[in-house]
Amino acid sequence: MILGDESFTKHKNRVKRIRTFFEILAVIAALVSLYLLFFHVKTYRPFKDSDVSHTTDTGFIALSYFGVDRIGDTSTLIGKKQLREHLEALKDEGYVTITHDDILKYYKEGKPLPPKSLYLMFEDGRRDTALFADEILEDLNFKGVMMTYPEKFNHEDTKFLRPIELKDMEDSSYWEMGTNGYRLEYINVFDRYHHFIGEIDPLKYAMMQKSLGRDYNHYLMDFIRDKDRIPVETVDHMKRRIAYDYRELRDIYSDKLGYVPPVYVLMHSNTGHFGNAPSVSAENEKWIRSLFEMNFNREGYCFNQRNSSLYDLTRMQPQPYWPVNHLLMRIKYDTNRDLRFKTGDDRIRSWDILKGAAQFKGESLIVTSIPEKAGIVKLKGNTGRSDVDVHVRLEGNSFGDQKVLLRGNKDLTRCLAVGISQGKLEVEEVEESSTKKLFSEKLSVLDGQPPISVEEDEHNVRVNELETLARYADSTAMANEYMSRLARVKQEKPKTIEEGGKPYEPVESFHARLDRTLDISLDGSSLTVLLDGKEAARVDVGHSEDTDIGLFAGWDSRAFSQRNLADDVYDGVFEKLVITSHGQTDGTPLYTTELKGFEKWKFVINQKWESVLGWFLRHF
Question: Could you tell me which residue, 507 or 560, shows the higher pLDDT?
């Protein structure tokens, strides 16, 4: 085919017209969104004095979201629909937002706050956060705090808000300003094999994160140290380095906004002080008290009362994948106050909630555990059948337990448990307080992935680090040096398991998502499990006359979150659960979470539209 071919030219022009049409639509949508962001019909209405309790100190909760985008398919940014669901649930519970001035008067003047007060923050100063959160704030009459890094003001990075936009947001009445500090930088970084890396910026951190453990620190929190963890700077140098950041913060904000935001979030806190070393803590404290009126010094818990200091406040950072009941469960136990969990729709009437909370969302039943324990639901009514087939898709986090409970007694203290736990497919026999494992195998083995040795994984870590350092090197000479080292490392042949290497046991990330399909078949004493359509287990389970069925979501004590150290709630997501009598041929299920009729049609159309829109946003 040549370029002059008439049909080819017509096709090419047609593609150009379609692409231009969508690009114009995208520009119009962006302009409309920006207009709505900076021009509001409504004005924020603060709480009234009549909303305040003058007899009881109820404190306030503080939530801090990393950022907001349209879809929410990243590890840090929550989708706008999920954010709306979170905030609407708090609105339904009677929460109202408060300002930093309200908090100052609460601590300094003893002025009471409404019984359910929320201080709502959004970190990193992202433009998409403002774009997608603004409409929600206006609809709910909530006020948000936009935290920014002033170092970003001097870069032409379209992801971050400019000072003129921040001023317009303040004028809208739905926003006030705070700061995350001058910049985000990491020091004293070691990978998970204790190789010293040193200092890295957020770009290097993002590319290198899979190689890291928890052995690193924020730029302001410690002395800069060498590979032996010995400080390489004097106390005077440390003070000048820290002072530089605070002076730059002060000067840029004063120049660009006309003032320094009164609210500060000390990054990577939870030290009990303002740094990891006494002299570092003292230097940070001096600057924090001189520049800011309040400081969030801790993270993980959301509840603040008068017995804490204005400079030692705590905030909780909801994750993008948290279902609404996860947020509500955390708030319930942080505040020690009852609230109503969301159930979704009337389909929940088919289930008894034995522990935790449960919500229907689309074709999924989400089971949320109570802190450090489990969430358990049981299908109402007795199926009358001990031999059943179950189809389900598991979509909760990898780090936790998601299991189907079969042949259970009425309270499910005796049953068969089949599901996924910590990266393994498991079949267990539960008998009151004891559990017997009948089958357990790693998903990677069942997938046919060859196991690797510790030496091979350590080699992969070194390759990842050198690739990162070469890509973001400060000069051509440094890039060439890293590329030379990378070439030498790639030529190395690490010891394999076959050669005597120790098998590598990966640690599941607390934020990694699961997406697995199970088909479970119970026939007499035989249980068969298909994993993603392939037979994975065939187990002798004996006989039982019990026929109750349930779902289990279990938190694991080994779980940790670098971003939210105190998260002790787990969500099992059971999608398209279908239960049929074993051997049944007419296809009529005993139970299913799948939608039907018009609701099914709406759900499918919405899913396809979101998929197409997501593809378009990623590629244009």
Answer: 507
Is residue 67 located within the same domain as residue 144? yes
Average pLDDT over residues 30-54: 73
Q: Residue 297: which CATH number? A: 3.20.20.370
Q: How far apart are CA 252 and CA 386, in angstroms?
A: 70
Amino acid at 529: V
Residues 247 and 162 in one domain: yes
| CATH number of the domain where residue 547 is located | 2.60.120.560
Q: How far apart are CA 269 and CA 426, in angstroms?
A: 38
**Model pLDDT for residues 276-294, shown as the tens digit of each residue:** 999 999 999 999 999 999 9
Q: Which of 114, 98, 103, 38 is nearest to 262 (CA)?
A: 103
> Please, are residues 541 and 431 in contact by the beta-carbon 8 Å criterion?
no
The pTM (predicted TM-score) of the whole model is: 0.89
d(Cα 459, Cα 464) in Å, to the nearest integer?
A: 9
Please tell me whether residues 47 and 160 are part of one structural domain. yes
Closest Cα to residue 241, out of 220, 216, 266, 217? Answer: 220
Predicted local distance difference test score (pLDDT) of residue 562? 45
- Of 315, 331, 359, the position where a domain reaches its end is 315
Q: Which of 169-178, 507-516, 547-556 has the highest mean pLDDT?
A: 169-178
DSSP per-residue codes, 106-168: HHHT-----SSEEEEEE-TTBHHHHHHHHHHHHHHT--EEEEE-GGGGGS--TTB--HHHHHH
Q: Does 176 lie in the same domain as 65? A: yes
Among 326, 337, 307, 335, which residue's Cα sits nearest to residue 62?
335
612 in any annotated domain: no
Helix or strand holding residue 390 (H, E): strand 388-394
Could you read off the pLDDT of 517-541 as tens digits, one per residue?
Answer: 999 999 999 999 999 999 999 999 9
Provide the residue range defining the domain that includes 409.
344-443+511-594
Query: Do 377 and 517 lie in a common domain?
Result: yes
Number of structural domains in the chain: 2
| Residue where the block lists tokens 């909530």 | 142
- Asked whether residue 234 falls in the same domain as residue 153, the answer is yes
DSSP summary character for residue 473: -
Task: Tell me: pLDDT of 37 over 60.
Answer: no
Does residue 319 contact residue 303 with C-beta atoms inside 8 Å? no
In a domain, 460, yes or no: no
Residue that has been written with the tokens 């499990």 in this structure: 529
Residue 487, domain member (yes or no) = no
Q: Residue 50 has which token pair?
A: 């009549």
What is the bridge-based pairing of β-strands 434-442 and 424-431? Answer: antiparallel
